[in-house]
Specification:
Number of strands: 8
Low-confidence stretches: 4-17
Number of helices: 4
Largest sheet: 8 strands, antiparallel
Radius of gyration: 16 Å
Strand order of the largest sheet: 1-2-8-7-6-5-4-3
Structural class: alpha+beta
Distance between the termini: 42 Å
Order of helices and strands: HEEHHEEEEEEH
């Protein structure tokens, strides 16, 4: 029921999200909740192909040094290793993590951390619509072993997530434009 309500909210607010990603966070003692969304000038297949280009994400997502599948590409649940550059965000989100990825083509990708220390990360990407423009949604819950440090504010997390999501959007839009040539 929560997923349905979230998708409906994404649909209702989608037109207000034209342009860069809109990110809402709640940084608290029990962890971080993140919700983000944007309207993307690409079709669902192009956005899907961008999100699932696991072995090349580090090429265009800032702060990511490594992204690679460590399971068979056709596995039902894929294992994805990602390594970041650290920084303040690494105090909460591990800079080396393996995610279990459950794909529901071409509308949803669920993920959860299966290694990466005591921090738990769980969330999903949602693609709404088939033809350009589509709506892209992201939500995650991060539960670190220790409460987030006071320096880690909602504004900081929002900027970090928006920067990475905007890079994914730019890449999908670039790929979409390339198919029209």
């Amino acid at each position: 029921m929560t997923r349905i309500l979230w998708c409906l909210a994404l649909l209702m607010q989608g037109m207000a999200w034209a342009g860069p990603a809109r990110v809402e966070t709640d940084v608290g003692f029990s962890g971080i909740r993140i919700q983000a969304g944007a309207v993307v000038n690409a079709d669902a297949r192009t956005m899907w192909d961008t999100l699932t280009d696991y072995n090349n994400l580090a090429r265009f997502v800032p702060g990511m040094r490594v992204s690679r599948l460590v399971s068979a590409p056709n596995a039902r649940i894929k294992l994805l290793e990602q390594r970041g550059e650290g920084g303040l965000i690494a105090l909460v989100i591990p800079d080396q993590v393996v995610f279990a990825i459950d794909e529901h083509p071409t509308s949803r990708i669920e993920f959860r951390s299966v290694s990466g220390g005591p921090t738990a990360v769980q969330g999903e990407w949602v693609i709404l619509g088939d033809q350009s423009p589509i709506r892209l949604g992201y939500r995650a819950r991060v539960v670190p072993a220790l409460p987030p440090p006071p320096l880690l504010t909602d504004d900081y997390v929002q900027r970090e997530i928006a920067q990475r999501m905007d890079a994914l959007i730019r890449e999908a839009e670039r790929r979409m434009a390339a198919t029209k040539k």
